[in-house]
């Protein structure tokens, strides 16, 4: 009897797992992994590159530098910086791609002595406003009328579409990254309106191309303001307001209060032109943000959710326009809302 029982156990066939069950188990495992990957992707924040904001005033750090270095002096700029080629030019300065200790840098030179006051104003702004929102100052020499800043190879925001159309950047050409860029832009406006110097107005913004040229796209796809030559100060307490330039402005990109108010029959006279405050920057935010959002999948949905705040930005009455902080808060709420919507849809699919 015992022998038969042993033979019976030996002869019992092993139950194989049906192929369908194994396939379902594998799919469930893959879906679980996909869920956690998507959850990490949508919720995690982009990493920031090292910033001079962590350096003492008068020092900088860029790229892979571990330690902060003092701003370069006239002598260091003359002997250690090698000028390579011109990469840009404006009314105030010419910009040259240069090299310092095997690092690419941007060397700015004054175009003409007539523009020296604007040049020195821009330098003073750069020195005072150093933060994550402003291009990193590496050194300057007032004797030679030169300024050295960090070089950003992706160039100004004017090149955004051209950059994102490159195959290697397709992964960041999404509504999420584009909305983050718009948030970067509004955060810069908020910083300027609450700067260490007071309320500063971005005057070099008479049209969209001019406005975009004031900002640089960094390698980690954030924005820094680069051109600070025209940042007049508003002081509401003393009722000190500003006028951006001394010529007549046209078009619907500029705020209504920047237009000549006395009709075509009366010739423009700068002395009669009323001044205005920082709310002219708020008027322009919807147009800049729309450019940054582009026309990728999901960008129209973002525009739909931003419609009310952008409508408020276009109020004909400057005082009724929201602050940059209120706009930024709305952008953050929309980003979180749409992220959660995408995550919910993804969970349902899984």
From TrEMBL:
Keywords: ATP-binding, Endoplasmic reticulum, Kinase, Membrane, Nucleotide-binding, Signal-anchor, Transferase, Transmembrane, Transmembrane helix. One of its GO terms (molecular function) is protein kinase activity. The keyword Glycosyltransferase does not apply. It catalyses: 3-O-[beta-D-GalNAc-(1->3)-beta-D-GlcNAc-(1->4)-alpha-D-Man]-L-Thr-[protein] + ATP = 3-O-[beta-D-GalNAc-(1->3)-beta-D-GlcNAc-(1->4)-(O-6-P-alpha-D-Man)]-Thr-[protein] + ADP + H(+). The chain crosses the membrane at residues 21-43. It is a single-pass type II membrane protein. Signal peptide: none annotated. PROSITE patterns: PROTEIN_KINASE_DOM (PS50011). Its EC number is 2.7.1.183. GO terms for biological process: protein O-linked glycosylation. Pfam families: PK_Tyr_Ser-Thr. Residues 81-350 form the Protein kinase domain. It is found in: Endoplasmic reticulum membrane. GO terms for cellular component: endoplasmic reticulum membrane. SMART domains: S_TKc. Protein O-mannose kinase that specifically mediates phosphorylation at the 6-position of an O-mannose of the trisaccharide (N-acetylgalactosamine (GalNAc)-beta-1,3-N-acetylglucosamine (GlcNAc)-beta-1,4-mannose) to generate phosphorylated O-mannosyl trisaccharide (N-acetylgalactosamine-beta-1,3-N-acetylglucosamine-beta-1,4-(phosphate-6-)mannose). Phosphorylated O-mannosyl trisaccharide is a carbohydrate structure present in alpha-dystroglycan (DAG1), which is required for binding laminin G-like domain-containing extracellular proteins with high affinity. This is Protein O-mannose kinase. It comes from Panthera tigris altaica. The gene is POMK.
């Amino acid at each position: 009897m015992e022998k038969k029982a042993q033979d019976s156990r030996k002869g019992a066939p092993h139950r194989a797992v049906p192929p369908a069950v194994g396939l379902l188990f594998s799919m469930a495992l893959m879906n679980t992994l996909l869920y956690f990957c998507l959850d990490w992707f949508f919720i995690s924040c982009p990493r920031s590159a090292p910033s001079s904001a962590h350096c003492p005033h008068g020092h900088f750090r860029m790229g892979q530098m571990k330690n902060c270095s003092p701003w370069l002096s006239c002598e260091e700029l003359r002997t250690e910086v090698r000028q390579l080629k011109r990469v840009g030019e404006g009314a105030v300065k010419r910009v040259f791609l240069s090299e310092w200790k095997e690092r690419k840098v941007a060397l700015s030179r004054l175009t003409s002595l007539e523009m020296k006051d604007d040049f020195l104003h821009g330098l003073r702004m750069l020195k005072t406003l150093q933060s994550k929102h402003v291009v990193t100052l590496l050194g300057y020499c007032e004797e030679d009328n030169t300024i050295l800043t960090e070089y950003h190879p992706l160039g100004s925001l004017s090149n955004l579409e051209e950059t994102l159309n490159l195959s290697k950047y397709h992964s960041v050409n999404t509504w999420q990254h584009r909305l983050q860029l718009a948030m970067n832009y509004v955060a810069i406006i908020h910083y300027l309106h609450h700067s260490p110097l007071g309320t500063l107005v971005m005057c070099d913004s008479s049209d969209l191309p001019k406005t975009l040229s004031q900002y640089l796209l960094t390698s980690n796809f954030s924005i820094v303001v680069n051109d600070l030559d025209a940042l007049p100060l508003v002081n509401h307490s003393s009722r000190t307001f500003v006028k951006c330039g001394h010529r007549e402005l046209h078009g619907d990109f500029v705020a209504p209060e920047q237009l000549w108010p006395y009709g075509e029959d009366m010739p423009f006279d700068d002395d009669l032109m009323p001044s205005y405050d920082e709310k002219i920057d708020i008027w322009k935010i919807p147009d800049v943000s729309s450019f940054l959002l582009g026309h990728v999948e999901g960008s129209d949905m973002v525009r739909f959710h931003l419609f009310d705040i952008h409508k408020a930005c276009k109020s004909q009455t400057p005082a009724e326009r929201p602050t940059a902080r209120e706009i930024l808060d709305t952008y953050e709420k929309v980003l979180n809302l749409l992220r959660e919507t995408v995550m919910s849809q993804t969970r349902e699919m899984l």
